[in-house]
Write a structure and sequence with these properties.
Distance between the termini: 64 Å
Strand content: 5-15%
Helix content: 40-55%
Number of helices: 17
Radius of gyration: 25 Å
Shape: globular
Number of strands: 7
Oligomer: single chain
C-alpha cells in the first residue's frame, strides 16, 4: 500500500511539473540530433557553432584596452543594447515558430547548404533573398565555375543557380537530419505569403522563366486547351497562376511558391535566426556579423545601390534565357525588354507613368536597356521612398483584386502554417479591405 501511494504521489507530482512546463512555454523539440528548448537564445550557441571554424573566420572577441577612447566607451553600451534587441527579436520569432510546430508538425528541409569555415548553415527559400545567400555560399565554397570574383555579388545571376560542384545541397526530414547541422549556426528567411506569391508570378511568368515548366501545366487548365498545338505559355495571367497553385498538392507546388513547411520547415531545420524580407538589411547584417563577414553587408546599407544591382542582374538573367531554344519562337529582345520594364514598375523602381519607349523596334540590346532603366530610376520623382513602396503595394493589391473570394480562402488554407509560424496576417487590410468571405459570397 505504501509503495502504491508513493507511486501515485510521484505520478501526481510529475503531472503538475509537466503542466507547469507546458504553461511556461518551455517546449522541448528535437533538432539536429540534439534537444533544443524553445527559449534558447541565438547567442547561446556562440561557442557551439564555432566547431569546425577556422581561426580566420572565428567571431572576434570584443577587445577592452586601457587606450579605449571616450567615444568607444560611450558607444559600447549602445552597441550592446542593439545586439540584445536583435537577439530578443530573433528569440521571439523562434518562439512563434516553435508554438506553431505543435499545430503543423512534420515538414521537411528541401535545400540546405552549410560552410564549415564559418560554421553556418541556411535553408534556401526562393523569392526571399535566395540568390543573395546562394551567391555568398557559392563564393565561400569557391564554386564559381573556375572564375574568381572579389565579392559574391559579382557572380552572374544565372550562374548562381547552376548545379554546384563543390557545394552540396542537403535534403532531410526530422528523422534523418545530418548530425553536423546541430553544430552549425542556422538561419533561414521568409516573407509575407501573398507578397511572395505575387513576386513569384512576376519573376517566373511575366518574365521568361517557368513558361516551359509550370506554364504548360497552367495552360492545361484552360477551357478548350488543345495539347497538339504549340504553346509558349507567355500569356499566363495572375488569376490563372493562383488558381493552379490552389489546385496543386502542396508538396508538388514549385519551390518558388511552395509553403515553407514543405520547403524549409522550422520544425525540422530549427533556425537560430528567422530573417524576414521585410527586415532583410537588418537581419542580414546580424547574420553576416555572426559569420565574420560583415564587410559584405555594406551594399545593403545603400538601398539605391542594391536596387541598381538587382535591375542589372535581372536584365542579364532574362537576356540569358533567350539563349534557350524554347524561347526563340515565344519571345524576342523587344518583348523581354518590355516585360522587364513592367516588372521594374511593379517592384517600385520605375514610375508607372513612364512608358516603354521602344515598342516599335525589332531588337533591344541588354546594354541600352540598362542605360535607360538606370537613367529613369535615377531621375524618378519624388525621392521619397514611401511613395515607391506605396506604388509597389498598389500593384499587388490590383493584381489580387481579380482573384475570387473563394480562391483567396483556399490560399489562406494552403499557407495557414506560414501565417502562423512567422506571424503574418492572413487577412491583411491591403487585400481584404473590400472583400467578403467565400461563404458570404455563396449564401
Amino acid at each position: 500500500m505504501v509503495g502504491r501511494r508513493t507511486t501515485k504521489k510521484a505520478i501526481a507530482v510529475g503531472a503538475v511539473v509537466l503542466l507547469f512546463l507546458l504553461l511556461a512555454g518551455r517546449h522541448v523539440l528535437f533538432a539536429g540530433k540534439r534537444l533544443i528548448t524553445k527559449t534558447e537564445d541565438p547567442s547561446d550557441d556562440e561557442q557551439k557553432t564555432t566547431v569546425g571554424k577556422t581561426k580566420a573566420h572565428a567571431k572576434p572577441r570584443t577587445a577592452t584596452t586601457t587606450t579605449t577612447t571616450t567615444t568607444t566607451t560611450v558607444a559600447a553600451p549602445v552597441q550592446d543594447q542593439l545586439e540584445k534587441s536583435s537577439r530578443d527579436l530573433y528569440l521571439k520569432r523562434r518562439q512563434t515558430a516553435d508554438d506553431a510546430c505543435f499545430l503543423f508538425a512534420g515538414g521537411q528541409v528541401d535545400r540546405a547548404v552549410e560552410h564549415n569555415g564559418t560554421g553556418a548553415a541556411t535553408c534556401l527559400t526562393p523569392k526571399v533573398g535566395c540568390t543573395y545567400w546562394l551567391s555568398i555560399f557559392r563564393w565561400l565554397h569557391n564554386d564559381t565555375g573556375g572564375r574568381t570574383f572579389a565579392t559574391p555579388f559579382e557572380i552572374p545571376r544565372y550562374q548562381v543557380h547552376y548545379k554546384p560542384k563543390n557545394m552540396k545541397f542537403h535534403r532531410f526530414s526530422i528523422t534523418n537530419t545530418p548530425a553536423f547541422f546541430g553544430e552549425r549556426f542556422r538561419f533561414m528567411f521568409v516573407r509575407e505569403p501573398y507578397s511572395r506569391l505575387w513576386s513569384a508570378y512576376v519573376d517566373k511568368f511575366l518574365l521568361p522563366d517557368h513558361w516551359d515548366a509550370d506554364g504548360w501545366r497552367i495552360l492545361r487548365l484552360r477551357p478548350g486547351y488543345n495539347q497538339s498545338e504549340k504553346h509558349c505559355a507567355n500569356d499566363i495571367s495572375f488569376v490563372e497562376f493562383v488558381d493552379y497553385v490552389t489546385k496543386t498538392a502542396p508538396e508538388q507546388i514549385g519551390d518558388h511558391y511552395r509553403p515553407y513547411n514543405y520547403l524549409c520547415s522550422p520544425c525540422v531545420f530549427r533556425p537560430h535566426v528567422v530573417g524576414k524580407l521585410e527586415t532583410f538589411a537588418h537581419d542580414t547584417h546580424y547574420i553576416l556579423t555572426r559569420m565574420n563577414l560583415s564587410r559584405l553587408a555594406n551594399q545593403l546599407s545603400d538601398s539605391e545601390q542594391h536596387a541598381r544591382h538587382e535591375m542589372k542582374m535581372l536584365i542579364d538573367d532574362c537576356y540569358h534565357e533567350l539563349l534557350h531554344a524554347f524561347y526563340h519562337n515565344c519571345t524576342n529582345t523587344t518583348d523581354v525588354a518590355r516585360r522587364l520594364w513592367r516588372a521594374f514598375q511593379i517592384n517600385g523602381y520605375l514610375p508607372r507613368s513612364a512608358e516603354f519607349p521602344w515598342a516599335g523596334r525589332t531588337r533591344v540590346e541588354a546594354g541600352e536597356l540598362k542605360v535607360l532603366v538606370l537613367k529613369t530610376y535615377r531621375e524618378r520623382q519624388p525621392r521619397n521612398k514611401s511613395f515607391w513602396k506605396a506604388q509597389k503595394e498598389q500593384e499587388m493589391a490590383e493584381a489580387y483584386r481579380d482573384v475570387s473570394d473563394c480562391v483567396m480562402e483556399k490560399l489562406r488554407t494552403l499557407y495557414a502554417a506560414d501565417f502562423a509560424m512567422f506571424d503574418y496576417d492572413p487577412l491583411p487590410d491591403l487585400l481584404y479591405r473590400h472583400r467578403q468571405t467565400c461563404r458570404q459570397r455563396t449564401t
